[in-house]
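Anyone? Bumping this.
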Amino acid sequence: MTANSAIEIRGLTKSFGDLAVLRGVDLGVARGSIVALLGSNGAGKTTIVRILATLLAADAGAATVAGFDVQTQAEDVRRSIALTGQFTAVDEILSGRENLVLVAQLRHLTDPGAIADRLLDRFALRDAATRRVSTYSGGMRRRLDIAMSLIGDPAVLFLDEPTTGLDPEARLEVWRAIKDLAGRGTSVLLTTQYLDEAEHLADRIAILHEGRILVEGTLAELKQLLPAATVEYVEKQPTLEEVFLAVIGHRDAQSGNDHHAVPHIGGRSPATKEAQT
Amino acid sequence: MTTHLVSDTAILTGRSLRHITRSLDTIITTALTPIALMLLFVYVFGGAIHGASTPGGSYVDYLLPGILLITIASGVSYTGFRLFMDMRSGMTERLRSLPIARPSVLWAHVVTSLVGNALSLVIVILVALAMGFRSGASVLAWLAIAGMLMLFTLALTWIAVIPGLAANSPDGASAFAYPLILLPFISSAFVPTDTMPGPVRAFAEHQPVTSIVDTIRDLYAGQPVGSGIWIALAWCVGITVAAYAGAMVTYRRKTS
């Protein structure tokens, strides 16, 4: 455990019955950085997040979050973190503002109303503040979800597949919100199954497969693992996503999508991907 | 952290009470089935039942305690449903990842159930008053009735928590209520047990509803309650303790 680690994981294992989900995971997240945990469905991403968020006990190994042991100092860990789960966990019957006030009250902060109003402004939800969340679009729900996570300025934020099930436009909204957070010094552990999302957002990327971290490093480091690039001349066709965004008039589409400068090495389009169960 | 248990439970109860006030249909549908049964029994079957076998007073006086227990049994199914929705939506996980007193997550649903059922019970009693129910019971007797109904609600609510945590579908989370609703029919709630055939009578006289119904009936008739009240209390406390233990085991299994 070093002073500038937000998260340290050593030899973490977890089985559900006969199924070994984590088989010895080692991972570190430096303070103020975004680390993407990349893996397919069932790789164990959510299990890692649930252990770090003190929702689940590991079978073996150790993990610290913000310097606190997840097993023995769970209460301190919970005071230092926020979790945005895979499913948008917002109260549909309450309004957006009431959801924010609820979390601020549970964190025993002073003036929950003012905290809620600031976040509503920051996440462009002011106009919908008093509407029931059941009337919100998917992107608005996710923004509210993330806004709820930021109450109390947690040092470490877990984002478990924050854009699964969102349309391309909403995904860009969420990406902007996450980048903005990292700029404010929050440490973020992000899980995703979208390779472009990891490329676009993360300082470092760890690839989780069958319960182990296979590789970990910056995007440039990971690219060096493969043979040097060969030059091929390929006719540049717009991707369907670029067409979609251009047609609906999204400004990011016209200004050039820098996350598409690098070809995909796999992964499916988020727009067509159903929420993972 | 137990320091915030009360305040956290209060905050979360405020949240789930808003679910009730924003969908008042849950209170109304909870009260509707017992009211329909009360109308059916008093105005359709009551003429045949009453007088022939039930002692003194009006038949609505006789059957009201059973109707109140049916109201609670149908009301707690919403507790199972609301808890299930919180589990499925990830709300429970979100709350458990916050620095709050963790038991407040379940206790808020339990307190909400007590408040919601109290509202339904008031509606049913008002309808009974309109149908001619009268009681000369003292304030103290009414407090005892309220306490007994609250204890019964608490017992059934902790039963409801178990399927609410464990169910895989909203129907599964609320279906457990049907057998509970039927229990008063095989008891002294609608007719005295003496005309029932042997085994049925034995069941009816030794299941919790009969002792609770008899106690409430004695209380609002202004009669001494006798030893039956202790049997009724023992049932309520016993069920609460057993169901609470079951709920804790289920909670630990579902959250680890």
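Late reply, but here is one note on the structure posted above: Strands of chain A lie at 5-16, 19-30, 34-38, 60-65, 68-69, 81-84, 156-160, 187-192, 204-209, 212-217.
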